[in-house]
Amino acid sequence: MISMTNIQQLASAIRAGRAALSWSQNDLAERSGVSLPTVARIESVTSNPRLETVARLIQTLQQAGVDFDWSVPQKDFLMGVLLKELTPQRNASNPPATR
Fold first, then answer.
1. Partners of 81 in beta bridges
2. Which residues contact 16 (CB under 8 A, 6 or more apart)?
3. Which residues of the chain fall below pLDDT 70?
4. Which secondary structure element, helix H or strand E, spans residue 59, and what is its range?
5. Could you list the residue range(s) of the whole structural domain that residue 58 is in?
6. Alpha-carbon gap, residue 61 to 28, rounded angstroms
7. Rounded mean pLDDT of the chain?
8. How far apart are CA 88 and CA 98, in angstroms?
């Protein structure tokens, strides 16, 4: 079972990850395959979520470019959320910019 403190930290991480991507709860639900009510319950800490569900949400955010650093202290909890700089793949139709 996940402790209440850990649930609060995970909920904060998920909210922060969504915010970094400018995603709504619905965006996260659709991309992760987790229902919207479940996302809302997890973020509002009104349920004790399954670890697999939390892992799916975190993985979806990571795949979209969010980097979670659980060792960086941020105010009252140990977690940092960073948005990785995503660079488009270069190809013939998208050459590098010249100066």
1. 68
2. 79, 81
3. 1-2, 71-99
4. helix 51-63
5. 4-83
6. 8
7. 78
8. 16
